[in-house]
Amino acid sequence: MQKFNTLKSIPAYLPIVNIDTDMIIPKQFLKTIKRTGLGKNLFFEMRYDDSGNEINDFVLNQNPFSKSKILIAGKNFGCGSSREHAPWALLDFGITCVISSSFADIFYSNCFKNGILPIILNDEKIKELSEYANRKEEISINLSEEKIIYGNSEVNFKIDPFKKKCLLEGLDDIALSLKKTDKIQTFENNLKGKKPWIFND
Amino acid sequence: MPNTLYDKIWNDHLVDQQDDGTALLFVDRHLVHEVTSPQAFEGLRNSNRKVRHPKLTLAVADHNVPTTDRSKGISDEESKIQVDTLESNCKEFGIQLFGMGDKRQGIVHIIGPEQGFTQPGTVIVCGDSHTATHGAFGSLAFGIGTSEVEHVLATQTLVQKKAKNFRVNVDGKLPLGVTSKDVILQIIGKIGTAGGTGCVIEYAGNLIRSLSVEQRMTICNMTIEGGARAGLIAPDEKIFKYLEGKPMSPKGETWHKAIEHWKNLRTDDGAKFDKEINLKAEEILPMITWGTSPQDVITIDGKVPNPQNEEDEDRKNSLERSLNYMGLKPNMAAKDIKIDKVFIGSCTNGRIEDLREAAKILKDKKIATHVHAMVVPGSGLVKEQAEQEGLDKIFVNSGFEWREPGCSMCLAMNADKLKPQERCASTSNRNFEGRQGRGGRTHLVSPGMAAAAAISGNLDDVRKYQN
Ligand code: SF4
Fold first, then answer.
1. pLDDT, tens digit (0-9, with 9 covering 90-100), for A173-192
2. First CA to last CA across chain B, in angstroms?
3. Strand A147-150 vs strand A153-156: parallel, antiparallel, or unpaired?
4. How far apart are CA B315 and CA A110, in angstroms?
């Protein structure tokens, strides 16, 4: 997983509430065998017309937002199914930070599993930040200090210390669990004595 | 302190209690299928990791496989890639796979028990929400996401938070024609699709104990439709007998040792449950779902609800939306609902006993001329067994199609689909919008009820055809 520390980008603003995982990546793209390559289908229904042409009005089709690394969106972002294709699609498009006033549970935790930082701010701050999107000005995110810097102002956000550490060090759950290989090994050795049938040998 | 069965299995699998309240749990059995695994294997490759215990992992292709002539292969290009990818991943990482040509191939939750891979007291996971099925053996079995599939492959463990304990007691005797499918539909109707959220459900009571192993699987299978993480039933003699001699069951001395251990797998007297409900078996009737959520249940003698009777505005709107999608009128009698298709199969009701139940109703009868009906056995072994018993002939003579095993029209990822507005009596587990094909309308029923619907051409009471 990519380490996350600081990030600087012109944010893209998508003022829609309840963006569900079907809007982020519709079900026809779930037959893929890769995590990568989903970026071109991110927000598929909103991004393309019936003949597959880009809809110019849609923010991510416009310059410079087509290169945004930060997405600001309405509340309850990521509701719907548990598909991990949603964070994969965002990541593949290049978005590594989503700012909203609230997130759906599973999506929120799926973000951390994939190196995306979800930030929760109140509506007022979101409005302020969205001005930067409108004016096409950069904002920066500093994860270790838990703050967003914009113009001469800054705002703090909160994040679980454990999740923060994982993002900063680029540690995915697997890397963390593998650090406990000794404990797993001990458990397995006991298991072999206690329940020999588990290992089928 | 007295413990529940869930507490016991949990404690028995604790590798590490972590500071943030989560725990690292050992996973005894990992089932893998083609849809939720490719990215997990890709992740292993990208980070140069191995599968920790290939022998504790079993793979099968089921969601995308065709149920007609297999010799032609898979025509849908993307489906084919997913199935081929599973094959090459299994080869690369040394995992046993039941490929499309293997007679042991079938739905992932049917082949586990069939092979004796599913065992009491184990933690079983699979990248699939209906993993709860295996709880019928007294195992803690639940579905996981793709990142978690990768985590289990690499570490044979999983990071989990402990759930709450919920007990559902069903006592008494079921009336004629009423099956375990009706019991679980009744339970979901009662607790709602969010009723089990954050819980593991233990099914108990003398009715549950009187059920066969396969009937128990039907109940545990649909636990997820009640929102719970997993559902389980304490193992007993029936389970031991079922497992004895299965290819992956323990053998010889180890078998006896295993039985000794399995006998202790039950909830202690006085153990505390966070939630508990009681049902009387006598009061359960043949059920159908009328709407687009598994909690939308009525009895076959019942009527479709009327949104006008609802006070709550949100509830009213959602009823209207469901009725509209389903193409039904308020207050319509269940038996007046005419159907176009019948699907008998899935991990809920695709086992041999389910096929026997349906065949018993269909024997010497013909299905309605306007109905298109098919049976998709849950596995190659189920198919073989049914053919030995001559069930295939009963189905075919009545007008059903007899197919090859797989998930098929349970989720319509292969070529078996409903057309828009087509209406189906289905023995599967989900009636969501579009689940069986875009615009398709699903009524969930038991295998006997599906057979009755096929004969009558409308949803009907299985008791009418009981021989
Ligand atoms: S039969 Fe249906 S519910 Fe069962 S595993 Fe297949 S798709 Fe899922």
1. 899 999 999 999 999 999 99
2. 51
3. antiparallel
4. 30
* pLDDT digit string, tens, across residues A137-156: 999 999 999 999 999 999 99
Among B residues 104-123, those touching chain A with beta carbons less than 8 Å apart: 119, 121-122
Q: Which helix (H) or strand (E) holds B204?
A: strand B199-204
Q: Ligand 1 pocket, B410 CB below 6 A?
A: yes
Residue type, B238: K
- The Cα–Cα gap between B199 and B191 comes to 12
Q: Compute mean pLDDT per 10 residues along chain B, 467 residues long, and list them.
A: 97 93 96 95 94 98 92 90 96 97 96 98 95 98 93 97 97 97 98 92 98 98 93 98 97 96 97 98 98 96 96 88 96 98 98 98 98 98 98 98 96 90 97 89 98 98 90
Cα separation, B313 vs B250, whole angstroms: 56
Closest CB from A162, A172, A197 relative to B254: A197
Question: Distance between CA atoms of B113 and B380, rounded to whole angstroms?
Answer: 14
ipTM, 2 dp: 0.94
Distances (CA, A) of B400 to A25, A161, B348, B394, B450: 37, 59, 19, 9, 11
Strand-strand pairing, B140-143 and B123-126: parallel
Question: B412 CA distance to ligand 1 centroid (A)?
Answer: 10
CB atoms within 10 A of CB B205: 17
Q: Cβ separation of A162 and B19 shorter than 8 Å?
A: yes
Q: Which of A35, A5, A27 is nearest to A145 (CA)?
A: A5
B346-to-A12, A54, B302 alpha-carbon distances in Å: 44, 40, 26
C-alpha span between B242 and B212 (Å, rounded): 10
Query: What pLDDT band is residue A201 in, cutting at 50, 70 and 90?
Result: low
Residue B238 burial (CB < 10 Å; 0-12/13-18/19+)? middle
Q: Under an 8 A CB cutoff, do B15 and A110 touch? A: no
Q: How far apart are CA B69 and CA B253, in angstroms?
A: 43
d(CA A82, CA A104): 10
Is B15 within 8 Å of A183 when comparing Cβ atoms?
Answer: yes
- Alpha-carbon distance of B386 to B403, in angstroms, equals 12
- Residue B232 Cβ inside 6 Å of ligand 1? The answer reads no
Tally of CB atoms within 10 A around A121: 20
User: Which residues numbered 130-189 in A keep a CB inside 8 Å of some CB on B?
Assistant: 160, 162, 172-174, 177-178, 180-181, 183-184, 187-188
Q: Are strands A6-9 and A139-142 parallel, antiparallel or unpaired?
A: antiparallel
Distance in angstroms (rounded) separating the CA atoms of residues B131 and B108: 9
